[in-house]
Write a structure and sequence with these properties.
Length: 393
């Protein structure tokens, strides 16, 4: 009870500081680095900690340390929560739903009030959050929706449909003139609900251009079979994603791209366009397309504005990325936690159907980044420092 009261005081002062936008430090509670908490979390490799042992307030579970995207989120959480004086701990699932569940259990056993979780696998995470919910923890799904359960209180996300639509539209707007342009489709992991939403967004703009002959699908017989359908059911999407998934894995992306180009006939080479689902996979796919002597030019999309991909954009090796400002997403989810702990209803602006309930959600807009606006979107906004790049004008 005493702990709850302390939480409320801390979150209230944090909310005030966030609203004032002054970034001042709340020093009412010291945030410590405790190796003991890391040990309790299982493996040092899977755990990053700045928690007070046994008295955690906010637990965060992220999918993997192996993609820069999630390290960006980690940095934002630690900075926002740390500045506000919250005890918090970020744990990584390292691609494993079993580790994810252990991480949730570890955080719950340390007394968290709020769990912010980006699921490794949308369906498999249901059991883990049900366990947390049963202990009175408020569950906020972060970036990726958790499906098939009523144990998700809120969902904080980017506008993922717009991400896919922006990628598709970029290909349309920048494709060479004419028709019959080969289109290579790639998607995220089938276990990630976002992969479906990204694909749905991309399909919404690409399908009419496939139907009118501007683009010809080069690498998916399943997509070809469905190319006359403006809207796909989830099962139909699943058949395409099953064929062109990268699993969000650079190596899978690379070997799929190699196999596709090996199998492609001459008329599927030349000037081509490629739906690259995110930055890590886009770089792998781009490298493969760049080394094929029969590919004269390629346009490829991405998302996440990872440093390596921003450099690829500057260098003309990746055509665009979608900037998803993790500062906003992390701040939104923490502000949501603050409202919940204050007994208020957090502001939401949409709902997402997770198969069981309509989850109250808050969406954040996205920004398309090309060579033309790297500086204004990413440097002037102080997301990155110019010194992290070469060749930036
Ligand atoms: C995220 C992307 C990320 C991908 C792979 C998606 O759920 O929204 O930003 O690139 O997962 O980790």
């Amino acid at each position: 009870m005493k702990k709850k009261l302390l939480s409320l005081i801390l979150v209230a002062s944090m909310a005030a500081s966030m609203l004032a936008g002054c970034g001042s430090k709340d020093t009412t509670e010291t945030v410590n680095d405790t190796p003991a908490a890391e040990e309790a979390a299982g493996s040092e490799d899977a755990a990053d900690s700045n928690a007070s042992s046994g008295n955690l307030q906010v637990g965060i579970v992220l999918p993997t340390k192996d993609e820069p995207r999630w390290l960006q989120d980690q940095a934002q959480f630690e900075s926002i929560l740390g500045d506000a004086g919250f005890t918090n701990q970020v744990l990584f699932s390292q691609g494993s739903s079993a580790t994810e569940r252990t991480n949730v259990e570890t955080l719950v056993s340390q007394g968290i009030d709020v769990l912010i979780i980006c699921a490794q696998d949308a369906a498999a995470a249901a059991a883990a959050v049900e366990e947390a919910k049963a202990e009175g923890v408020t569950v906020i799904a972060y970036d990726r929706l958790i499906t098939g359960t009523d144990a998700v209180d809120y969902y904080v996300t980017f506008d993922s449909f717009s991400v896919g639509a922006a990628q598709g539209q970029y290909l349309i707007d920048n494709a060479p003139a004419g028709s019959g342009i080969p289109l290579y489709l790639y998607a995220g992991a089938a276990t990630d609900n976002n992969a479906f939403i990204f694909f749905e967004g991309a399909w919404s703009v690409l399908q009419p251009k496939i139907a009118d002959g501007t683009f010809v699908i080069a690498n998916s017989s399943e997509a070809v079979a469905l190319q006359d359908k403006a809207e796909l059911t989830r099962d139909e999407e699943a058949t395409i994603i099953g064929q062109v998934t990268t699993d969000w894995d650079f190596n899978v992306a690379k070997s799929k791209a190699e196999a596709h180009l090996t199998a492609a006939s001459a008329d599927m080479k030349g000037d081509v366009v490629v739906l690259g689902p995110n930055d890590g996979t886009a770089r792998s796919i781009a490298d493969v397309f760049a080394t094929d002597k029969d590919i004269t030019s390629y346009i490829i999309t991405g998302q996440d504005a990872e440093i390596a991909s921003v450099q690829y954009v500057i260098d003309g090796k990746q055509s665009m990325t979608v900037f998803k400002d993790t500062r906003t997403l992390a701040a939104d989810s923490v502000a949501m936690a603050v409202s919940v702990l204050n007994g208020e209803t957090p502001t939401t602006d949409s709902t997402y159907d997770n198969g069981v309930i309509e989850v109250p959600s808050k969406q954040t807009d996205i920004v398309v980044v090309t060579q033309d606006n790297v500086k204004s979107a990413l440097i002037d906004s102080e997301y990155y420092d110019a010194s992290e790049f070469t060749g930036l004008e």
